[in-house]
């Protein structure tokens, strides 16, 4: 039976609530469904169903097909799982389908391609697998297609969709070339796959019979890539110029187009305030949005915009940020950090600062001076926002999280051990990042070096975050989490120095080598901290006892570990003048990594377990205070 009235819509919604809503959908069944939270009607039919971040879980029932007038279905950021039920394919009026941020699995189903009116489809952050179907070409009106962070494999089909302007397939398991028609999309749309973007890397399907590329193919690829690159560059320059002119002339006159954006701002704020614990980060962002809206109103809207650093393309603005779906990453010394997924698919980390004690002028000067600093081992800062009540900093989101989580999270079964090459590579990356900061003058220091501020790229390269913030906050007289890393001479968190950074970096190296968090070792009965413990073990010539058991399973590296341990001990010298500079540390770790990889190349086949029997002599440095 095909039902088509409000009663049938109500039956579908009740089935949905029963299957996935549990206690989270507080709909009063005796009222009209048009009055229910998240349900919007027109001419007595349900046309929009928006339940973002409502803590829905389980499998979608076969019921939503009844909603024959539905044009927007948003179930983003819940915990829905299993395949998408086939009756979704009968929602002939559907224009917007937002399923991102769930646990949906299985292949992308063919029935989606019956949805001829679909304009926006977001399947990102799920567990979809299999290949990307070429049938997407049937969806001629598609303008947005987001599929990032799934398990999709195979190559990207050559999509011929004239209206497609937002596209992202990053962080899947895709291989092969980027199809020509998609080559104008930003590179971030493809990152985190094994695509052959660089010329001369043979692509699947482009090799000739004997597996080698012909001269013509190589020339073709090189020319294609050069032209593609120039085109992308031109488009970017034009876009940047347009955006700037727009911002200058009509910044505040822009209205979100009705039906074009997923949730109007006020609604998003209200929805998020109601969100269940499944979406714990949402409410504070709503609070930030409300606080900003209030103080903007007071100040007449004069400071409404985000300030972008340097050449960062202005692809989003404050409105986009406040509309984004957010998730708390953690609370730190200077505030709370959120992962914010903007509706255009861009993911950023937003730090909401608390206890800023400096004046607005000082804040802007300090943030702008550190925001300008760029290096491949520093987390890129993109923008900031300042008003009396809210201070936000926007950074690139680092999907692999922090060194702290990697070292100390998931220590139980199923953990992938962190090997020596990865650890020494992280030590080197962090040293390079901090040394670069210090190279900007003796007054520039980080002030908060610790393992949760060393973030990682997908290839485990270290990027240092949070630099410069220590100079903005008030003094922190009570012991806090940074204490294990803080140099003995630092009594006021704002009065940090480069030599204090070196001390903290030394503790970070000890953490990498021992696998012990410096903050935890405080809990030791005798009140012994990490450097004192290491020094006492080393003095007693039990050096190999200090290393993380996980490292001892690798042969031939103990000598290198002992050398790095010596460098760490040098950094943690009690008197600042006895510590090396960060540039010296960087050079020494660089040398250590170089010689250790050369040595291993030479002795690759030699079984050598003598290392574990040697006694090492390590200078344990100055006695503890
Ligand atoms: N750009 C980012 N990308 C991904 N994760 C991040 C990013 N910035 C911070 N995080 C993570 O978010 C969490 C909270 O970070 P935050 O910087 O607020 O606190 P913290 O590092 O624990 O302490 P502190 O404020 O003293 O530096 C940490 O686990 C951190 O690793």
TrEMBL record:
<feature type="region of interest" description="Disordered">
    <location>
        <begin position="593"/>
        <end position="625"/>
    </location>
</feature>
<dbReference type="InterPro" id="IPR011009">
    <property type="entry name" value="Kinase-like_dom_sf"/>
</dbReference>
<dbReference type="InterPro" id="IPR001611">
    <property type="entry name" value="Leu-rich_rpt"/>
</dbReference>
<dbReference type="InterPro" id="IPR032675">
    <property type="entry name" value="LRR_dom_sf"/>
</dbReference>
<keyword id="KW-0732">Signal</keyword>
<keyword id="KW-0547">Nucleotide-binding</keyword>
<keyword id="KW-0677">Repeat</keyword>
<dbReference type="Pfam" id="PF00560">
    <property type="entry name" value="LRR_1"/>
</dbReference>
<keyword id="KW-0812">Transmembrane</keyword>
<protein>
    <recommendedName>
        <fullName>Protein kinase domain-containing protein</fullName>
    </recommendedName>
</protein>
<feature type="binding site">
    <location>
        <position position="351"/>
    </location>
    <ligand>
        <name>ATP</name>
    </ligand>
</feature>
<dbReference type="Pfam" id="PF00069">
    <property type="entry name" value="Pkinase"/>
</dbReference>
<keyword id="KW-0433">Leucine-rich repeat</keyword>
<feature type="domain" description="Protein kinase">
    <location>
        <begin position="323"/>
        <end position="592"/>
    </location>
</feature>
<keyword id="KW-0067">ATP-binding</keyword>
<keyword id="KW-0472">Membrane</keyword>
<dbReference type="Pfam" id="PF08263">
    <property type="entry name" value="LRRNT_2"/>
</dbReference>
<dbReference type="InterPro" id="IPR000719">
    <property type="entry name" value="Prot_kinase_dom"/>
</dbReference>
<feature type="compositionally biased region" description="Basic and acidic residues">
    <location>
        <begin position="593"/>
        <end position="611"/>
    </location>
</feature>
<dbReference type="InterPro" id="IPR017441">
    <property type="entry name" value="Protein_kinase_ATP_BS"/>
</dbReference>
<dbReference type="InterPro" id="IPR050994">
    <property type="entry name" value="At_inactive_RLKs"/>
</dbReference>
<feature type="transmembrane region" description="Helical">
    <location>
        <begin position="217"/>
        <end position="239"/>
    </location>
</feature>
<keyword id="KW-1133">Transmembrane helix</keyword>
<dbReference type="InterPro" id="IPR013210">
    <property type="entry name" value="LRR_N_plant-typ"/>
</dbReference>
């Amino acid at each position: 039976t095909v039902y088509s009235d409000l009663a049938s819509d109500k039956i579908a919604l009740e089935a949905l609530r029963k299957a996935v809503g549990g206690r989270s959908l507080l709909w009063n069944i005796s009222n009209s469904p048009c009055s229910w939270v998240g349900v919007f009607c027109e001419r007595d039919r349900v046309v929009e169903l928006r339940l973002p971040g409502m803590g829905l879980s389980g499998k979608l029932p076969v019921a939503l097909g009844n909603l024959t007038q539905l044009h927007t279905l948003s179930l983003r950021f819940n915990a829905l799982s299993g395949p998408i039920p086939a009756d979704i394919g009968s929602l002939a009026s559907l224009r917007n389908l937002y399923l991102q941020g769930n646990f949906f699995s299985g292949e992308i189903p063919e029935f989606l391609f019956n949805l001829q009116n679909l304009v926006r489809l977001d399947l990102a952050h799920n567990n979809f697998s299999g290949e990307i179907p070429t049938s997407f070409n049937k969806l001629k009106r598609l303008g947005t297609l987001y599929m990032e962070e799934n398990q999709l494999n195979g190559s990207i089909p050559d999509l011929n969709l004239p209206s497609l302007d937002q596209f992202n397939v990053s962080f899947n398991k895709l291989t092969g070339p980027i199809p020509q028609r998609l080559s104008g999309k930003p590179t971030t749309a493809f990152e985190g796959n094994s695509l052959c973007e660089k010329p001369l890397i043979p692509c699947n399907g482009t090799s000739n019979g004997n597996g080698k590329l012909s001269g013509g193919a190589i020339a073709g690829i090189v020319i294609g890539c050069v032209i593609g690159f120039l085109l992308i560059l031109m488009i970017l320059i034009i876009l940047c110029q347009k955006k700037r002119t727009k911002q200058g002339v009509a910044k505040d006159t822009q209205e979100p187009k009705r039906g074009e954006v997923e949730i109007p701002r006020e609604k998003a704020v209200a929805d998020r305030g109601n969100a269940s614990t499944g979406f714990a980060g949402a409410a504070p962002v709503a609070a930030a949005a409300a606080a900003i809206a209030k103080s903007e109103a007071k100040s007449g809207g004069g400071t409404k915009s985000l300030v972008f650093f340097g050449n960062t393309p202005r692809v989003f603005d404050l409105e986009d940020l406040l509309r984004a779906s957010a998730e708390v990453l953690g609370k730190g010394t200077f505030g709370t950090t959120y992962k914010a997924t903007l509706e255009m698919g861009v993911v950023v980390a937003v730090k909401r600062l608390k206890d800023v004690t400096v004046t607005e002028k000082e804040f802007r000067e300090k943030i702008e001076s550190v925001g300008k600093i760029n290096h491949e081992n520093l987390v890129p800062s993109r923008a900031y926002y300042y008003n009396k009540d809210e201070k936000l900093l926007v950074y690139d989101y680092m999907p692999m999280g922090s060194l702290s989580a990697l070292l100390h999270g998931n220590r139980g079964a199923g953990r992938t051990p962190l090997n020596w090459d990865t650890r020494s590579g992280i030590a080197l990356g962090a040293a390079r990042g901090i040394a670069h900061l210090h190279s900007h003058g003796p007054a520039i220091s980080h002030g908060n070096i610790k393992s949760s501020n060393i973030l990682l790229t997908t290839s485990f390269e270290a990027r240092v975050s949070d630099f410069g913030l220590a100079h903005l906050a008030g003094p922190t007289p009570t012991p806090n989490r940074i204490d294990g890393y803080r140099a003995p001479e630092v009594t006021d968190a704002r009065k940090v120095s480069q030599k204090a950074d070196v001390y903290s970096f030394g503790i970070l190296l000890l953490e990498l080598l021992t696998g012990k968090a410096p903050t935890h070792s405080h809990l030791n009965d005798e009140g012994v901290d990490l450097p004192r413990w290491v020094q006492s073990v080393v003095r007693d010539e039990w050096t190999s006892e200090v290393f993380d058991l996980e490292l001892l399973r690798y042969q031939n590296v103990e000598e290198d570990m002992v050398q790095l341990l010596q460098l760490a001990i040098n950094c943690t010298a009690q008197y600042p003048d006895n510590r090396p500079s960060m540039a010296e540390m960087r050079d020494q770790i660089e040398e250590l990594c170089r010689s250790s990889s050369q040595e291993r190349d030479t002795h690759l086949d030699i079984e050598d377990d003598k290392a574990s029997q040697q006694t090492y002599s390590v200078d344990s440095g100055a006695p503890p205070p």
